[in-house]
Amino acid sequence: MSLLKEYDVIVVGGGHAGCEATAAAANSGSSTLLITMNMGTIAQMSCNPAMGGVAKGQIVREIDAMGGYSGIVSDRTAIQFRMLNLSKGPAMWSPRVQSDRWLFAQEWRLMLEQTEKVDFWQDTVMEILVKDGKACGVKTAMGIEVKSKTVILTNGTFLNGLIHIGQQNFGGGRAGERNVKGLTEQMVELGFDHGRMKTGTPPRVDARSLDYSAMEEQKGDQFPSKFSFTNTLPLKEQLSCHITYTNPRVHEILSEGLDRSPMFSGAIEGTGPRYCPSIEEKIDRFADKERHQIFVEPEGWNTVEVYVNGFSTSLPLDVQMKAIREVKGFEEAKLFRPGYAIEYDYFPPTQLKHSLETKIIDNLYFAGQINGTTGYEEAGAQGLMAGLNASLKCQEKEEVILGRDQAYIGVLIDDLITKGTKEPYRMFTSRAEYRILLRQDNADIRLTEFSFNHGLATKDRLEKVLRKQEETKSLLDKLAETSVEPELINPYLEEMGTAPIKQKVKLSSLIARPQLSLSGVSKKKEAVSFDLEDFSKESLEQAEISIKYQGYIDREKEMAEKHKRLDGLIIKDDFDYHQLKSLSSEAREKLSKLRPRNIGQASRISGVSPSDISVLLIHLGR
Predict the structure, then answer these.
(1) Tell me, what's the pLDDT at 529?
(2) How far is CA 339 from the centre of its chain?
(3) What is d(CA 425, CA 407) in angstroms, rounded to the nearest whole number?
(4) What is the pLDDT of residues 567-608, one digit of tens each?
C-alpha cells in the first residue's frame, strides 16, 4: 500500500542525527520526509541535558556555520553557559550549555515544522525498499510503502535495543519506548557486517530531596557567550549546577552488587564508551581512587528533575538507591527513575563512503549511533553531512566531503571511514592534527562560504561572516601600523612583568607577548592612539589570536597543504591491490576492503604502513 507521495529524501529516526539530516536535505532543496516512531520525542535528549564540551562544542559551532540548527536550538533553550578550558590556548576553548530538556525538543520540532519541504510521518520503518542494488524507499509497520530517491538511517540505539537493570533486561530503544526489529536482519542479508555496542545513563532524582548546601556550586560564566553565529541572544539569567563526590562507603556498596551487574556477569556483550564509563566500571578500573566527581545538573527551568552526571549505572535498583544515598547531599534522595544500560546494533562505518552513503547499497546513507559514535554533537554532524549529500545526489550534483584541515566534522567522518571503531567513538581535540586551525571561534570563517556554495548557509549568514573578516583585517592593519612610545607604555609593561621597550614598536608586536592582551593594552589611552570600541568583540578576539598564534597557524597550514597533495592522488575504484606483491598482506587486505579514494585516505588506514604508501606512490608514478 502506498498512500504518501514520492520524496527525494526519507530520514528514518527523529534523534539529533535525523533532525539535522532532515533540515540539511530540505534546506538544500530536496523534498524530505522524516519518519519517527513518536512525534512527541523528536530531538529528545536521551542522556545528559547538555550540548557541547571539549571538542564537542567545536562541532556544534561547525554545524551552526554550515546552516544546521543545533547551535540555534541550544542558545534558545540554554539554562547555563560555560566556556571550558579558558586557562589553555584558544585551540582548546570549548563552549558548553546546560539545556532545558523539554524546551530543547520543543524548539527543534518547531524549527523543523517551519522548514519548507519537510513532511512528517509517525510510524516504524521495518524494511528498506531496494531495487537493482539501490535504495528506493521504505516500508513501515503499518504496511505503507513510501518511495524516495534516497534513504538515511539514523536509528540511534533502537536497532534490537536491549535495556539492562541488574539481572533484568527487556527490549527497548530507550526507557519507555520499544525497539526496532527486522532492519538489522535485512541489512545483514544485503551483505552488511554488524556489531553490538552499549551505552548507559544515570538515575534521575528529585531536586527537592537533595541538600545543595553540602555540595559545591558551579555557576555559569559571568559574561556568557553563545553557540550560534546568528542573532540569538546570550543568557541573562542562569541556573547553577553543583558538584559532589562518591566516597569509600559508596564504592563498598557498589562492589557488593557487582555479582548482579550485567556488565560483570556477561549479560551485556556490547562494548561501552571508554571515556564515559559506568560508576561500577570506575570503581573496578580505578580501585585506587577514593572518590569520583559527580555533577548535579538541573534538567530545566521549571522542573525538579535532576541528572546525576557521573553516576551512570546498570546495577540493580536496590543497589543504586542504597549507594546514591551515601553520596554527600544525596542522603534523602528520591529517585524518579533508575539508571540503566542499553545494548544496540551498529554497522562498522568502514562500510561507508566519505559522503556517508553505503558502499553496498547505492542511495542509502547511515548517520549517528548506527555508525558506532556516541554523543548528540557527533550524531548531528553526521546527520547534516548525510542529509546534504543525499540531497545533492538527488540533484545529480557532486558530493561534499570536508577535509581534516577544514573541520572537526571532517576529522570525525574520516576517522570513522578509514579507521572504523570497535567502541563508541567520541570526539576529542587530540584527534585533530590541525586543532589550532579548527578553533570554535573561527568555525564561521572556515565553513560558512563553503556551506553557502552548497546551498545550506543563507546569504545573510555569508554577508555577516564577510563583514567580520573585513573588520578583523582592518583591525590587524591598524595594529601593525600603530607605534607605541616607550615612555608611555613602559610603566604598564613593568607592571605586567614583561620587558620594557627602548624605542617605538608596533602595537601588534606588543600584543604578541604572552603577558599582554589586546584589551589590557587598549586601556592605556595615553599610549594607544585609537579606540577599540569601534570593533566588535568577535573581531577583537580574531585579531588577538591571529597575532599571538600566527607562527603555529602558519605551520599547521603548511602541514595541511602537504597532506592535501596526498589527498589529490586519486586511486581508481577498481584498483587491484593484490597485484602489488610488495604491499604487506595486511595492507592488501585492508585496502581491498576499505577502497580508499586517494593516497591520503589510504595512509590513515590502520595497518597500512609508510612503506606500503611508498609502494602505492611508486606504482602511481609518484
Answers:
(1) 74
(2) 23
(3) 17
(4) 888 888 888 998 888 889 888 988 988 888 888 888 888 888
What residues have CB less than 8 Å from 104, skipping those under 6 apart? 43, 45, 49, 73, 74, 77
Name the residue with cell 545483514: 188
Cell digits of residue 456: 545550506
C-alpha 68 chain-centroid distance: 13
378 closest CA partner among 405, 341, 358, 349: 349
- Rounded to the nearest 10 degrees, how much is the dihedral formed by the CA atoms of 163, 165, 170, 173? -20
* Tens-digit pLDDT profile for residues 176-233: 899 999 999 999 999 999 999 999 999 999 999 999 999 999 999 999 999 999 999 9
Domains plus CATH for the chain? 7-199+344-459 (3.50.50.60), 204-341 (2.40.30.260), 469-565 (1.10.10.1800), 568-619 (1.10.150.570)
Task: Kindly list the distances between the CA atom of residue 92 and the CA atoms of 99, 295, 375, in Å, as whole numbers in the listed order.
Answer: 22, 21, 19
What letters, b where the CB count within 10 A reaches 16 and e where it falls short, cover 211-244?
A: eeeebeeeebeeebbbbbbbebeebeebbbbbeb
Model pTM greater than 0.85?
yes
Beta bridge partners of 190: none
Enumerate helices (H) and strands (E) in the chain, giving the number of each: 20, 22
User: What is the greatest pairwise CA distance in the chain?
Assistant: 85
| Helical H segments across 371-506, by residue range | 376-394, 408-419, 443-453, 459-481, 486-495
Q: Backbone dihedral region of 497: left (phi > 0), alpha (psi from -120 to 50 degrees) or beta?
A: left
Q: From CA 39, how far away is CA 454, in angstroms rounded? A: 30
